[in-house]
From TrEMBL:
GO terms for biological process: intracellular protein transport; vesicle-mediated transport. This is MHD domain-containing protein. It comes from the Eukaryota. SUPFAM superfamilies: Second domain of Mu2 adaptin subunit (ap50) of ap2 adaptor (SSF49447). Keywords: Membrane, Protein transport, Transport. InterPro entries: Adaptor_comp_med_subunit, AP2_Mu_C_sf, Clathrin_mu, Clathrin_mu_CS, MHD.
Length: 254
C-alpha cells in the first residue's frame, strides 16, 4: 500500500539516420520506449490511449499488456507491476523525419590550407509549434582526414577544439537557442617528410555525428491522450514526459 498513489509515463525516443551531403536523409527511423513507474496500491487497471498510435510499429510489449485490446483499438491496457518497467518498445522506419534544427557542415581543401564551416540553429517551423521544447546538450563531432595536422577554430557559442590524435573537431554548443550558431576553422596540412610539401587530402568524404537531448517533445508525433486508472477507490496522481535523443546520426560532409 502506497501513502500517495502515483503513475508516471515517460516516452523516450532516439533518432537513427544517415544524411547525405545534399541534406537528404537516405536512411532513418525512431527507436522508442514507453516507460512506466507505477506506485499504485491494490490491483488497478491502467488504460493508455494514444494520439497517433500508428507509430507503434515493430513493437514488443511487457507481458502485462493485453495484446487483444491493442490489436482491437490500439490502446494499451494492463495491470502494472510495482515500480519501473518498460511497457513497450518500438522501431519506426522513416526517412521523412522533420528534425527540429538545421545543420550543415562543409570542408574545402585549398592549396595553402583547408577551410571548415559548421552551422546549427533551431528550425522555427517546428520549435514555434512546440513552445515547451528545449534542445540541449548539443554536440557536433566532425572527423577529418589524417593529413590534417592542426586547426585554428572559432565559434559564436559554446567551445570548440581539435583533437590532433583522433583528428576530430568537437564543438560543444549546449542549448541550441534562437540565433544561428556558427563555427569555422582553418585547417593546417601535415607536410611530407621528404620535401616538406603539404599533404593536401584527397576529396575524401568526412563525416559528422551529432548528439543532443530534447525535452518536452517526441519526434514521432506520439502523444498520450489519456491515462485512466480503474478498479481503485482513490484518484492517483498521473504525469507524462517526452524526451527525444540522438541515436546514431551520421551527416556526410558536403
Amino acid at each position: 500500500v502506497y501513502a500517495s498513489n502515483e503513475v508516471y509515463v515517460d516516452i523516450v525516443e532516439s533518432i537513427d539516420c544517415i544524411v547525405n551531403g545534399n541534406g537528404q536523409m537516405v536512411s532513418g527511423g525512431v527507436n522508442g520506449d514507453i516507460q512506466v513507474n507505477s506506485k499504485l496500491s491494490g490491483i488497478p487497471e491502467v488504460l493508455l490511449t494514444m494520439r497517433n498510435p500508428g507509430v507503434l510499429q515493430n513493437v514488443s510489449f511487457h507481458p502485462c499488456v493485453r495484446l487483444h485490446r491493442f490489436e482491437r483499438d490500439r490502446a494499451l491496457s494492463f495491470i502494472p507491476p510495482d515500480g519501473e518497467f518498460t511497457l513497450a518498445s518500438y522501431w519506426t522506419p522513416d526517412t521523412t523525419l522533420n528534425l527540429p534544427f538545421h545543420f550543415t557542415v562543409s570542408v574545402a581543401y585549398h592549396a595553402e590550407h583547408g577551410k571548415l564551416q559548421i552551422a546549427a540553429n533551431p528550425k522555427l517551423s517546428v520549435t514555434m509549434q512546440h513552445k515547451q521544447m528545449l534542445i540541449d546538450k548539443f554536440v557536433v563531432n566532425v572527423r577529418l582526414p589524417s593529413d590534417i595536422a592542426s586547426a585554428t577554430l572559432a565559434c559564436q557559442s559554446g567551445n570548440i577544439r581539435f583533437d590532433e590524435e583522433t583528428k576530430v573537431v568537437v564543438w560543444h554548443i549546449g542549448k541550441l537557442a534562437g540565433q544561428e550558431n556558427k563555427a569555422e576553422g582553418t585547417l593546417v596540412y601535415a607536410t611530407d617528410p621528404k620535401d616538406g610539401s603539404p599533404r593536401i587530402p584527397a576529396e575524401e568524404k568526412s563525416t559528422s555525428q551529432l548528439s543532443f537531448v530534447i525535452k518536452g517533445w517526441a519526434i514521432s508525433g506520439i502523444r498520450l491522450d489519456a491515462c485512466d486508472v480503474t478498479g481503485t477507490s482513490y484518484s492517483p496522481y498521473k504525469a507524462s514526459r517526452y524526451t527525444t535523443t540522438s541515436g546514431r546520426m551520421d551527416f556526410r560532409v558536403a
